[in-house]
TrEMBL record:
Active site: D14 (nucleophile)
Gene Ontology biological process terms from the UniProt entry: carbohydrate metabolic process; DNA repair; glycolate biosynthetic process
Entry keyword annotation includes Magnesium: yes
Necessary cofactors: Mg(2+)
UniProt-recorded name of the protein: Phosphoglycolate phosphatase
PANTHER family: PHOSPHOGLYCOLATE PHOSPHATASE
Domain of life: Bacteria
Signal peptide range in chain numbering: none
Reported function: Specifically catalyzes the dephosphorylation of 2-phosphoglycolate. Is involved in the dissimilation of the intracellular 2-phosphoglycolate formed during the DNA repair of 3'-phosphoglycolate ends, a major class of DNA lesions induced by oxidative stress.
Recorded GO MF terms: metal ion binding; phosphoglycolate phosphatase activity
């Protein structure tokens, strides 16, 4: 693996599985939804593999993996999940080790920081607030900010535009193929944390520019400003 350093006026962060360990709350929200719908619980491991393409996909997979549901049932389940997850969002979420120090250092270096997440705005903004992270970020692009989600690169370009940085002088830090593919399509280097959620794929099988065991390791991969 190369240890190239990348120009990084901007650093774009994925949220679930990269900055925040949200899986306990996502599982609680999903299982409360399943209980209300009279369906069996899902294990933490199953939920873990369903996270990455936004909550509508999580709901769909909860209802259709080794089970069946009509489109109308999936549609009707969305507000049920929204209500339950909204009630627990943040209660068992924790900031991953190294994240706060990394954000502090990047900010002190004068870099511009954004969150680019497939999590919906209605969950993202209160969660960033609750976890005390809002002040670090000059922009937040959430899963329903645009008509498309990652792996579409439009979210990354939008984040760069809001920050006022060039995409070719920015770096994406994420945890899944959605982040890696979006960054590749945007022509942006991408570093993946190895502790996150990658939809059941081994993270080292995903094409990227390096794996990080904590966010702090990203610091060595960025050119000084
Ligand atoms: O909400 C999801 O499914 C994933 O969100 P993320 O893009 O922050 O990992
Ligand atoms: Mg993620």
């Amino acid at each position: 693996m190369s240890a190239l350093r990348y120009p990084a006026d901007g650093v774009l962060f994925d949220l679930d599985g990269t900055l925040l360990d949200t899986i306990a709350d996502l599982a609680e929200g999903a299982n409360r939804m399943l209980a209300e719908l009279g369906r069996p619980r899902r294990s933490l491991a199953e939920i873990h593999s369903f996270v990455g393409k936004g909550f509508p996909n999580l709901v769909r997979r909860c209802l259709t993996e080794d089970a069946s549901a009509t489109e109308a049932e999936i549609e009707a389940a969305l507000p049920v999940f929204r209500r339950h997850y909204g009630a627990v969002n943040g209660s068992h979420t924790r900031i991953y080790p190294g994240v706060l120090d990394t954000l502090e250092i990047l900010r002190a270096q004068g870099r511009r920081l954004a969150v680019v997440t497939n999590k919906a705005e209605a969950f993202t903004f209160p969660l960033l607030e609750r976890m005390g992270l809002v002040a670090y970020f000059g922009a937040v692009v959430a899963g329903d900010t645009l008509p498309v989600k990652k792996p579409d690169p439009a979210m990354l370009f939008h984040g760069c535009e809001l920050l006022g940085v060039a995409a070719n002088r920015s770096v994406m830090i994420g945890d899944s193929a959605n982040d890696a593919l979006a960054a590749r399509a945007a022509g942006m280097p991408v570093l993946l944390v190895s502790y996150g959620y990658s939809e059941g794929m081994p993270v080292d099988s995903i094409d990227c520019d390096g794996l990080l065991s904590t966010a702090l390791e990203a610091l060595d991969r960025l050119q000084p400003l």
